[in-house]
Amino acid sequence: MMTKKLNNCLLGLLVLFGCANAQTQGSRGGAGFAALPEPAKNQKVATFAGGCFWALSEGLSELKGVTKVVSGYAGGTTKNPTYEEVCGKETGHAESVQVYYDPSVISYATLAEAFFYAHDPTTVDRQGPDVGDDYRSIAFYRTPDEKKTLEKVIAKVNATHHYSNPIVTQVVPYKVLYPAESYHQGYYCSHPGSFYIQQVSVPKVLKLRKAMYNQLKREFQH
């Protein structure tokens, strides 16, 4: 009984200090928002949503061939949303990341596989203490080939029984990603002592490192 009460208290703390309760800054259209760069000639772009973007951004940025990751909002209908609006559950957007990568170093299939190991793709509208459609799992595709690749990767991961339950990730066409506020970019590294980062984000990043060890940049292979 005491253990159950302790677990409930810890869960409450995680919700209190969760991704949605971070300090919000700025307003859309001001200098407080990140820019969304155009990919270089040797780059391609992929977009994913998998819970709080702090961990997902860090995890995918550690892969060889990934040159930049921008946190943002995608999958909804509201134009130019703010973090507060997305957390209000009325925009339809999910916290997402735009990944810039070199396809000669890392394939889209490998990047997609890493995405499925970087979060729990078997839960609907929830990642740990973060609950709501803004934390849903989505893989956005830009071409029919990317859609086929995503379907193959999902079948592959399901076949490994890495997860007890089947993947429920939405596979939908990419439309637009609105970059998040500047303070969200690189949040994992700039707030290493954060309770939420330590208790929720770090385990996710370590999980990805273990699953995709051979694909990590050298500095993260330890």
UniProtKB/TrEMBL annotation:
<comment type="function">
    <text>Has an important function as a repair enzyme for proteins that have been inactivated by oxidation. Catalyzes the reversible oxidation-reduction of methionine sulfoxide in proteins to methionine.</text>
</comment>
<dbReference type="InterPro" id="IPR036509">
    <property type="entry name" value="Met_Sox_Rdtase_MsrA_sf"/>
</dbReference>
<dbReference type="InterPro" id="IPR002569">
    <property type="entry name" value="Met_Sox_Rdtase_MsrA_dom"/>
</dbReference>
<dbReference type="Pfam" id="PF01625">
    <property type="entry name" value="PMSR"/>
</dbReference>
<protein>
    <recommendedName>
        <fullName>Peptide methionine sulfoxide reductase MsrA</fullName>
        <ecNumber>1.8.4.11</ecNumber>
    </recommendedName>
</protein>
<feature type="active site">
    <location>
        <position position="52"/>
    </location>
</feature>
<dbReference type="GO" id="GO:0008113">
    <property type="term" value="F:peptide-methionine (S)-S-oxide reductase activity"/>
</dbReference>
<dbReference type="GO" id="GO:0033744">
    <property type="term" value="F:L-methionine:thioredoxin-disulfide S-oxidoreductase activity"/>
</dbReference>
<keyword id="KW-0732">Signal</keyword>
<feature type="signal peptide">
    <location>
        <begin position="1"/>
        <end position="22"/>
    </location>
</feature>
<comment type="similarity">
    <text>Belongs to the MsrA Met sulfoxide reductase family.</text>
</comment>
<feature type="domain" description="Peptide methionine sulphoxide reductase MsrA">
    <location>
        <begin position="46"/>
        <end position="196"/>
    </location>
</feature>
<keyword id="KW-0560">Oxidoreductase</keyword>
